[in-house]
């Protein structure tokens, strides 16, 4: 029997995002994969603790303005290279943003 607990399909991504916490300035990290319920982020040299609340937004090139919203999440898993997030407090627009990433080509 599989130990897979996920109920939503995941999409592998290698997209830069900005992540911030209440106690840190935004920093760049990479989404490794995403689903409708959460994501796994590679953090590089940054360390975060389990249950930390974070806000994730799209990283934009200098001079571009982002029309995307911040996604609210809690850290549900910590590994040597990154963190697993569970999205929280999503309204229909936020959910649409996530599904757009999951099902984009």
- The residue-averaged pLDDT reads 84
Helix content: 10-25%
Measure the end-to-end span: 31 Å
Largest sheet: 6 strands, antiparallel, barrel
In quaternary terms, these chains amount to: single chain
Query: Which consecutive residue ranges, at least 5 long each, have pLDDT under 50?
Result: none
Task: Name the structural class.
Answer: mainly beta
What proportion strand?
Answer: 35-45%
**SSE order in H/E notation?**
EEEEEEH
Strand order of the largest sheet: 1-2-3-6-5-4
Rg calculated over all Cα atoms: 13 Å
**Secondary structure: number of strands:** 6
- Approximate shape: globular
Q: What is the tally of helical segments?
A: 1
Explained architecture:
The protein is built from 1 helix and 6 strands. With 105 residues, it is mainly β. A 6-stranded antiparallel barrel has the order 1-2-3-6-5-4. Strand 2 (27-34) and strand 3 form a beta hairpin. The protein is globular, with a radius of gyration of 13 Å. The termini are far apart.
Key attributes of the depicted protein:
mainly beta; single chain; globular; 105 residues; six-stranded antiparallel barrel
Please outline what is shown here.
By secondary structure, the protein is mainly β.
Write the layout of secondary structure elements.
Layout: E1 11-21, E2 27-34, E3 38-42, E4 53-58, E5 71-78, E6 82-87, H1 92-102
Antiparallel strand pairs: 1-2, 1-4, 2-3, 3-6, 4-5, 5-6
């Amino acid at each position: 029997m599989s130990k897979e607990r996920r109920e939503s399909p995941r999409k592998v991504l290698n997209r830069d995002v900005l992540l911030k916490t209440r106690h840190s300035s935004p920093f760049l990290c990479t989404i490794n994969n995403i689903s409708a319920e959460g994501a796994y982020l590679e953090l590089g040299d940054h360390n975060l603790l389990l249950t930390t609340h974070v806000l994730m937004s799209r990283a934009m090139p200098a001079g571009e303005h982002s029309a995307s919203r911040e996604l609210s999440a809690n850290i549900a898993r910590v590994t040597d290279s990154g963190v697993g997030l569970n999205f929280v407090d999503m309204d229909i627009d936020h959910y649409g943003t996530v599904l757009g990433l999951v099902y984009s080509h």
